[in-house]
Specification:
binds zinc ion, three-stranded antiparallel β-sheet, two-stranded antiparallel ribbon, alpha+beta, Alpha-Beta Plaits
């Protein structure tokens, strides 16, 4: 597992980087040169994770940065109810990601 922000490698079982407060990804997309941009802010982890899944279906790499509590218990300690989760995508995919997320929100209504 890797941190998409500082690119540290972690053992499997660890879910987020304590230093950067981001969820780890299984592999680093060619990260060198990618500028990550916040595309949308969510309340809670689950909607952010759903949005990330939708983007990945469209071949857009994404990662979630959230308000983590600094303990050793990983995502379980994260304030899923009230915490803010921000979804990041590469700058060049920002517009495409935003329109996919808009469509997704429209589908829910
Ligand atoms: Zn990190």
């Amino acid at each position: 597992m890797f941190c998409p922000e500082c690119q540290s490698e972690y053992e499997s079982g660890i879910t987020h980087c304590e230093d950067c407060a981001v969820f780890l990804v299984e592999s680093l997309p060619e990260l060198s040169g990618i500028k990550w941009k916040a595309v949308k802010e969510f309340t809670g982890y689950i909607p952010a994770e759903m949005a990330k899944g939708a983007l990945e279906k469209n071949s857009i790499p994404a990662f979630i940065k959230g308000d983590f509590l600094s303990t050793a218990y990983g995502a379980k300690t994260w304030d899923a109810a009230g915490g803010k989760a921000v979804l990041f995508v590469p700058e060049e995919e920002l517009e495409r990601a935003a329109s996919i997320l808009e469509e997704m929100t429209a589908d829910e209504q």
